[in-house]
Each structure stands twice: as structure tokens, then as C-alpha cells.
Specification:
This is HTH cro/C1-type domain-containing protein. This protein is mainly alpha-helical. The protein has a single domain, classed as 434 Repressor (Amino-terminal Domain) (Orthogonal Bundle), CATH 1.10.260.40. The chain is built from 4 helices and no strands.
Length: about 55
């Protein structure tokens, strides 16, 4: 079974891009790219900090 990348699915559903996401979060483009390609997952600390900023 192929790994599901929920982040990529949600971005597509919302008609948003990885570029939009990194601009909103202030993260490095390569970090968001790795999240979207399942090469790396955000830590709970990153998610928590990002949620506080929005």
C-alpha cells in the first residue's frame, strides 16, 4: 500500500501549494518540500509552534 501524504492531499484540496505553506509558516522551502514528499515529517514541537503563530 502506498504511503498517504495527508499534507499534500489537503494542500491540493485547498488549491494551495508548498510555496504558500512555507510563506505562511516562515519555514525553509526545503523543509516544507520534504514534508510534502514524505521524506521528513514535522515534529510535534514544530506543529505546536506553528499553530500558536496562526
Amino acid at each position: 500500500m502506498k504511503d498517504l501524504n495527508r499534507l499534500k492531499v489537503v494542500l491540493a484540496e485547498q488549491k494551495k501549494t508548498g510555496k504558500w505553506l512555507y510563506e505562511q509558516l516562515g519555514k525553509d522551502t526545503s523543509t516544507v518540500s520534504k514534508w510534502c514528499s514524505n521524506k521528513m515529517q514535522p515534529s510535534f514541537r514544530d506543529i505546536n509552534e506553528d499553530c500558536k503563530d496562526t
